[in-house]
Amino acid sequence: STTSFADCFLRYATIHYQKMPGLSIATIAAALLCCCCCLGFTSAFVTPTSPVTAAISKSAETSSHHHATSTSLEATRRNFIDQSIATITATSIILSAQPAVAKEAPIEITPQIVQEAFDAIRNELTSSSGVVATLSNLIDNGSFEEILQYTKESDAYFRRAKLGKARKMLTDKDLKGEAVLMSNAVTFDLIGINRASRPGKENREDQLRYLEELKKDIAKFLELEKTIVFE
């Protein structure tokens, strides 16, 4: 299948949002992302020095019993996520009755500040030193170990920092929820490139496919800039 992790995640989150309008998209997205990570759907990021890297090589020698267990886990994954969403629903009701915690100070929103925030993201998409160009060069050079490290670092400084900062500037509450999904889609794209670069699983075709998905997801996020309303 050519469906990316991001596509699956976004589609499933949207379905649950439609079924449960009482919860925000952000809450559902966080729940799904947490469940996916717990179940090994994303396998997180693997770096050259990570103990998980060694485990990958060993996994090729696992017994048929282990294979059967993995198959069973895959078959029950959807039911587990459904049950987890139900748990999150109940938890959200309980948490709503708890004392409110101090909120973060509101971010100052001016045309200049917004432009700078989105320009920083745009630079990662178009600049020769940005995330997209750097990954493209690493893929062309077959630098698999460097890709493993770089995708993990990119998720931290690009997705969490830059996309996270711009997301907080959005003035439309509904779009803020959608922006969470867009941001998580970037993570899934980076994980896809990381997975296609792991020892014994190197796949240039998959690397390039996820790189194209990354470009599209960044471009889609940049469209949010024009929705910001200044007072």
Strands, count: 0
Estimate percent helicity: over 70%
Instruction: Give the C-alpha Rg.
Output: 19 Å
Structural class: mainly alpha
Gross morphology is elongated
**Multimer state:** single chain
Arithmetic mean pLDDT = 75
Parts with pLDDT < 50 across at least 5 consecutive residues:
37-43, 51-77, 90-97
Strand content: under 5%
Largest sheet: none
Number of helical runs? 9
SSE string:
HHHHHHHHH
- How far is the N terminus from the C terminus? 46 Å
Fold topology:
Layout: H1 5-19, H2 25-38, H3 51-59, H4 64-96, H5 111-126, H6 131-140, H7 144-167, H8 173-195, H9 204-222
Helix pairs in contact: 1-2, 1-8, 2-4, 2-8, 5-7, 5-9, 6-7, 6-9, 7-8, 8-9
